[in-house]
Amino acid sequence: MRKMSLRFRINLAEGGGDQAHRASGDGAGVTGDRYNVTAVSLHWVMAALVLAQLALGGWMIGIPNDPPGLQAYWYNLHKSLGLTLGFLVLLRLGWRMRHPAPLLPGALARWQRRAARASHVLLYLCMLAMPLSGYLGSSFTKYPIKYFGLTLPKWGWEAPALKELFSAIHYVTVWIFMALIAVHAAAALKHLLVDRDGVFERMWRSR
Fold this sequence. Notes:
Layout (H helix, E strand, L loop, with lengths): L1 H11 L6 H6 L12 H24 L9 H29 L11 H30 L6 E2 L2 E2 L8 H36 L3 H6 L3
Antiparallel strand pairs: 1-2
Helix pairs in contact: 1-4, 3-4, 4-5, 5-6
């Protein structure tokens, strides 16, 4: 268990870990300096869904209660997309545990490697915390949770204090997540336009 946990922490960071193991390209994950089609597809599908979810979450706050059902429709869609993203995050974490990231350029400064590792860990934590806190917050209301029209089993009860607690966690995590996305995007563009060191291309085109 300890060995698996250590391997998971190493593999989670982009480019962290044992270079000799990574260069060997064992398994069906990554070989050389780029991710394969599965990793690239998961990244960009999730990126598109995340941006859509953030836009929807900000927009739906202003939806009026009238006509009846309009607000509920968009809130249920937001919850459905959130749960879907939660499942995809778990899938991506499982993939990462089995398939290490490709090598980072050898000339990359140590602080940049550490920053990349820290930012990716925080991004994953946010992507887990947001759907979980949203789901828990919705569980402690009188309203059912619907996943694309399918009513999920209800185990919670109406508890306004718990609802407010998880909603606050959800709200704060969203802002932290958006700040991390901005840093992540800025770093990616720096690698593409300024450094031109191939880091951006690792996730832009698959092998």
